[in-house]
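User: Can you predict the 3D structure of UDP-N-acetylglucosamine 4,6-dehydratase? Sequence below.
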Amino acid sequence: MTYRTRLTLLVLLDSIIVSTAIFIASWVVYPYTQILELDAIVISAIALLLFHHLFAAIYKLYNKVWAYASIGELLAIVKAITLSIIAAGIVQYLANDFSLYSRALLVTWLLHITLIGGSRFIWRVFRDRYIAGDKAKKRTLIVGAGAAGSMIVRQLHNSNEDNALLPVAFVDDDLTKQRMEIYNVPVHGRIKDIPSVVENHDIEHVVIAIPSLANGELNEIVDYCNQTSAKVQMIPKIEDLMTGKVSVSHLKNVEVEDLLGRDPVELDIGSISEYVTGSTVMVTGAGGSIGSELCRQLMRFSPSRILLVGHGEFSIYNINMELKGTFADADIDIIPMIGDVQDRHRIFEIVETYQPAIIYHAAAHKHVPLMEYNPHEAVKNNVVGTKNVAEAADTFGAEKFVLVSTDKAVRPTNVMGATKRIAEMVVQDLAKRSKTKFAAVRFGNVLGSRGSVIPLFKKQIERGGPLTVTDPEMTRYFMTIPEASRLVIQAGTLAKGGEIFVLDMGEPVKIVDLARNLIKLSGYSEDEIGIQFNGKRPGEKMYEELLGEDEVLPGEVYEKIYVGRTVEVDPKLLIDFIDQVAERSPKDLKDELMKIVYMEHNLKNVIL
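Assistant: Sure. Here are the predicted structure tokens for UDP-N-acetylglucosamine 4,6-dehydratase:
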């Protein structure tokens, strides 16, 4: 229906109701008397008609979408009708020798409210019951009958989208809400009752509407949901609801990252702001997973300038455009720089030109099997590249230098881990004689990073499987990219020179359990996708090693951040190794890497 046709019908309908209502009211109030002056009633009817359309225009009664009418629209109708009755009463009083048929006007007011309001709201009832229909909607269980769950139900009731959700029941652990109803949706049990509620009420969809779930609670809820065939979605966590309200459009699939997430770390905003705000900050590997997230986090602390340094043209372009779009109103100079950390001249040129106060060195080759086949490239990028950036920081007086390292540098069994350990040694050696405060930060696997297991599993699921897992018993420690980046920035504030900070990685996770969860969350069964065990790849460990009590200084220096013990580094050994990289065969290079790394293990305490 066009706007013109719709407007014409509404005006015509209102005109009929308004013109006849006062005559009906007069007959109802004075059915057997002749005290009414017909001329006064006719004048009142004309006045009512004119004033009704005037106030209807003022309150925009003809511009509202009545299919979604609610209390706000009802109040607009009441105001328009009340004012039109008052105005018509004044006209009647003046035209009828200062006589007023107050009871007739009151009944007219009630008829207007009933007929005009009813004509609007009957369309919503008709649409919900006969046009939109519930048959096409998916029967939905809402987990959490609090404020967020109530808002979700209300918005779902008003939704007319294709494949919309029909709220059928709540579950909530609050005993006072059991057997109660919220927006006509009953609370049918507690969270542990999810499987039975889904079965008994033919639930097709589950929405987890608890934005402030504590660590581990989401896993418990998802475990109950996984016992059913219903699709599972959730509202964002409380820290992600930037708009301040929950919306159906915010519903997201439950990701593995959500299940492995931990309680957020409260950053020391004051200390970070003190050394980041107003400073020039440089991030190498700025287009990578960790580097790009570091840039996003740093931008929130308003540096005066941020240098996005990276070798990949497209990745630097992407993060540059993202930051300029997200922080368009911030007075921050964002400078994309194409440069390879192996190019000493280019790195020195960048640092000399822009004089960064803080450098985060995240550029590295991190893929374990690939580095086993390309040890020379691993050394050139991870060791020589780190040396170039670190010495540039020292030469041009940067205040702080933070190396992003890995837990694979602990007792390394592969080229990647060994090169990162030697990169730490380079930084530690410089820390002994430089005014720049050098530090390194170690952590394990980050969820969603390039080359990590999660994106690989997702691609394998898209292809129909199977998911390839090394071994049923293989475990890893995981951390989300934002958490790792925040802790790296926090560790930088703690650096006094020469430390290697170790991040608490939480509890280990079996890779096969990760695969099973991802299959289920993607809407499939393990039988449909399958899991295939391929055996260890070159350089891989079955278990990532946690640090022994004798290897870490006691106590956290900050929440989830520890400082490791250190041993002396022989600078001559490092220089000789770096100078002779190109001359060595791949096998000799690997042997020499392990020789240097394990030489310090003979000192009993591993450098951490």
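The domain at 269-451+478-505+548-603 is CATH 3.40.50.720 (Rossmann fold). Residues 239-245, 602-608 have pLDDT under 50 and may be disordered.
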